[in-house]
Amino acid sequence: MMCSASVIIIAYNMEQFISKTVKSVLGQTLAPSQIIIIDNGSTDNTLRIINRFANNNSNIIISSLPINVGLAEARNISLDFVKTDYFCFLDADDMLRKDAIEKFSKVAIKYDADLVTCNVLARKHFFFNKTQHPSEWYSQTGCMSILKCPKQFYEQAAWAKFIKTEYANKISYRFTKNSLFCEDVPAATVLFTNTDKICTLPDPLYIYRIRKNSLSSRFEKKQIDDFVFAMTEQDRIMRESRFQSYKVFQSIYEARLLLGNLLLSRLNPKNIDYYFKVMYLAFNHITHDDLQNLFSKSFQLEVLYTSIMEKDSKLYTKLLKQKS
After folding, report:
1. What is the phi-psi region of residue 115: left when phi exceeds 0, alpha when psi lies from -120 to 50, beta otherwise?
2. 2: which of 34, 209, 289, 315 is 20 to 30 A away, CA to CA?
3. What number of other Cβ atoms are within 10 A of residue 322's Cβ?
4. Using CA atoms, how far apart are residues 249 and 171, in angstroms rounded to an integer?
5. Angle subtended at Cα 256 by Cα 253 and Cα 258, rounded to the nearest 5 degrees
């Protein structure tokens, strides 16, 4: 027995990549019942290309938006089309391994999981610059809560997650509107903290592509503001959920610093002073206890945290030179 599944793709001006992405879904060993593609106001040939696929595949559902409403809102719109037991998001320039839906489905049915996560294959991952996530994140068997796999917070993106539709509706799973960066962090926090039925797969079923001109390769002041908002929202969600696990909070804050480091590394130089001026708002809920062993693996993260809390970009440069 297999569950029914939807794959959701949000596409904006992806004529160069969308064919390979859709083909990776059509070539699955277990075909998804729905392939939901939201054309987010594309001005290139993206819509024409996906319409050709839809003409030959009855399980493809296309919604063409007249203007680009942003990735977060497009994702929210896409969820209204889901009529299956489970769904997953696939970025329009990424791909699924051909057995992804089958492996997700087997685990989901076996354990009646609310959420199944998988390893990710990438040329250069944001945080670790390795070919894929460390497999130990996904080595657990059976169902668990986030208390047993807190490092899931290292990867809070919408993709690489197979989500039960009933569970998503129960927790009002939605994305932060009008955000260009970290719009999926509050959504992932709600997703992780409301269930004890999380399953993990060590297989790299999601194939992530990093492009030089992608949204995540360049950052401006708006992304700083989005980061701060997302992290303060995450803090609010965690306070309301009353989680007390040190390991969970350690993973959250380490992930936050890693993401903050990514943001800084790709930031327009003219906005660096602004970064250090406001970023403390995303970290001022960290307590001394939360910091235990947090910087044991990276002096750069310690330097970043210290400089953020001092709101001083020059201190960051100075401390890096001292530590190196």
Report:
1. beta
2. 209
3. 9
4. 21
5. 115
The DSSP string of 195-234 is -S-EEEEEEEEEEE---TTSGGG-B-HHHHHHHHHHHHHH
**Residues 49-76: tens digit of each pLDDT:** 999 999 999 999 999 999 999 999 999 9
d(CA 96, CA 84): 19
Under 8 Å CB-to-CB from 171, ≥6 apart: which residues? Answer: 190, 191, 194
Which are the contacts of 121, defined by CB distance < 8 A and separation ≥ 6? 97, 131, 132, 204, 206, 207, 208
Contacts of 3 (CB under 8 A, 6+ apart): 84, 85, 86, 105, 108, 109
Q: C-alpha angle with apex 160: 157 to 163, nearest 5 degrees?
A: 95
Q: What is the pLDDT of residues 156-199, one digit of tens each?
A: 999 999 999 999 999 999 999 888 899 999 999 999 999 999 99
User: DSSP label at 157?
Assistant: -
The residue type of 193 is T
Type of residue numbered 41: G
Q: Distance between CA atoms of 85 and 9, rounded to whole angstroms? A: 17
Residue corresponding to tokens 């998804």:
32
Q: Answer whether 102's CB lies under 8 Å from 20's CB.
A: no
Among 183, 204, 157, 180, smallest CA distance to 266 is for 180
CB 199 within 8 A of CB 137: no
Residue 214's Cβ-count burial label (10 Å; 0-12, 13-18, 19+) is: exposed
pTM of the model: 0.91
